[in-house]
């Protein structure tokens, strides 16, 4: 179950008691507040709180108060200018706090983004639930032969079935021993902070994750990318759906310039100029390595 009965009761209570406010409000984000978007088999993402909107980005950029005579189109144009020229500070004026439930091995990837405030569920004080991420059969894949960090073709037949049984059996066995070790029935019981080391990396944890929009965009650019690991990408995609409703102009610029754009080196730009002039350019004449050339061709050929 992604959301426990107690968490759902808290969500229902908070949504049932709306409060008036004088602060800037994003109607799109208000619709997401406290709702849990399910991710993977037991995970979720939900917005706890946020600050700012598209107008706050423009206000910071202009260092002024109120909308004045500026129109929505002017604001959108300014935001695109800021994104295009990598002006990050105005985007830092917006912040959002998420409650995320995710497998531990995904959390270890996620925490590499060290520009957020994080408070994680503590297995030193509390007992973790018996909830593990078990991939769908179609998500089990062999190691990629061209990318040391990626996946190749999906496992099939008996191999896929055997791997799934290993994942389920090992997780259940580890949790059984975890429960036995911390039990104080007829024994002293091992401290929770020690017993937790026996739990597998696919057990679920939870945290509050607060980040400004500039650093959130950096996270999404990497983790919502098609090349990102599936298990973290689906969380990033769920967050994208929330952010595009929160700051539609900023998200549109981000989607265009960051997600849909490409950064080229000086050497790559020179190759493009030669190609436009009709000159033949090869990997050998480009001065690029095979890997860099392959990535370059992927950009220009689509």
Automatic annotation (TrEMBL):
Co-factor: note: Binds 4 FAD per tetramer. Each FAD binding site is formed by three monomers.
Binding site for FAD: 89, 112-114, 120, 212-214, 218
Catalytic activities: dUMP + (6R)-5,10-methylene-5,6,7,8-tetrahydrofolate + NADPH + H(+) = dTMP + (6S)-5,6,7,8-tetrahydrofolate + NADP(+)
Record-listed dUMP binding positions: 109-112, 120-124, 196, 223
Top EC category: transferase
List of catalytic residues: 223 (involved in ionization of n3 of dump, leading to its activation)
Keywords for the protein's UniProt record, in alphabetical order: FAD, Flavoprotein, Methyltransferase, NADP, Nucleotide biosynthesis, Transferase
PROSITE patterns per the UniProt record, alphabetical: THYX
Listed InterPro entries: Thymidylate_synthase_ThyX, Thymidylate_synthase_ThyX_sf
Highest taxon, organism lineage: Bacteria
Pathway: Pyrimidine metabolism; dTTP biosynthesis
Cofactor(s), by name: FAD
Subunit relationships: Homotetramer.
Its job: Catalyzes the reductive methylation of 2'-deoxyuridine-5'-monophosphate (dUMP) to 2'-deoxythymidine-5'-monophosphate (dTMP) while utilizing 5,10-methylenetetrahydrofolate (mTHF) as the methyl donor, and NADPH and FADH(2) as the reductant.
Protein's name in the database: Flavin-dependent thymidylate synthase
GN (gene name): thyX
């Amino acid at each position: 179950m992604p959301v426990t009965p107690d968490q759902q009761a808290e969500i229902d209570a908070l949504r049932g008691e709306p409060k008036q406010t004088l602060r800037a409000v994003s109607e799109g984000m208000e619709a997401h507040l406290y709702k849990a978007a399910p991710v993977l088999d037991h995970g979720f993402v939900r917005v706890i709180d946020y600050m700012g909107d598209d107008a706050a980005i423009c206000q910071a950029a202009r260092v002024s108060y109120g909308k004045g005579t500026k129109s929505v189109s002017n604001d959108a144009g300014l935001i695109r200018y800021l994104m295009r020229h990598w002006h990050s500070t105005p985007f830092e004026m917006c912040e959002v706090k998420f409650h995320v439930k995710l497998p531990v091995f995904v959390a270890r990837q996620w925490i590499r983004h060290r520009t957020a405030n994080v408070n994680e569920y503590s297995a030193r004080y509390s007992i973790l639930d018996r909830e593990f991420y078990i991939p769908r059969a179609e998500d089990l894949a062999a190691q990629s032969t061209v990318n040391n960090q990626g996946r190749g073709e999906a496992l099939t037949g008996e191999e896929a079935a055997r791997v799934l049984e290993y994942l389920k059996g090992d997780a259940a066995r580890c949790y059984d021993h975890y429960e036995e070790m911390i039990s104080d029935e007829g024994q002293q019981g091992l401290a929770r902070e020690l017993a937790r080391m026996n739990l597998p990396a696919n057990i679920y944890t939870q945290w509050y994750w607060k980040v400004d929009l500039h650093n959130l965009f950096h996270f999404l650019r990497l983790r919502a990318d098609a090349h990102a690991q599936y298990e973290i990408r689906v969380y990033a995609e769920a967050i994208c759906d929330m952010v595009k409703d929160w700051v539609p102009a900023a998200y549109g610029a981000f989607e265009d310039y960051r997600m849909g754009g490409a950064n080229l080196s000086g050497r790559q730009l020179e190759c493009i100029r030669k190609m436009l002039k009709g000159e033949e350019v090869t990997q050998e004449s480009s001065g690029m390595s095979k890997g860099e050339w392959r990535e370059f061709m992927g950009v220009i050929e689509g």
